[in-house]
Amino acid sequence: METSRIPGFYNMTVEERRQLLTTMDMFTDDDTEYLFSKEPLPTDTADNMIENVIGTFPLPLGLGLNFQINGKDYCIPMAIEEPSVVASASHIAKIVRNAGGFTTETTGRVMTGQIQVVGCSDFYAVKEAVLQEKDTLIDAANNAYPSLVNRGGGAEDLEVRILNEASDAKYGQMLIIHLYVDTCDAMGANIINTMAESLAPVIEELTGGKVYLRILSNYPDRCLARARCVIPPDLLQTGDFSGEQVRDGVIHAYEFAASDPYRAVTHNKGIMNGIDPVVIATGNDWRAVEAGAHAHAAREGMYTSMTTWSRDEQGNLIGELELPMSVGTVGGSINVHPIAKLAHKMLNVNSAQELGQVIVAVGLAQNLGALKALATDGIQKGHMALHSRSVAIAAGATGEMIDMISQRLIEEKEIRVGKAKELVEEYKK
Ligand code: NDP
Question: Could you list the residue ranges forming a coiled coil in this record (predicted)?
Answer without folding.
Answer: none
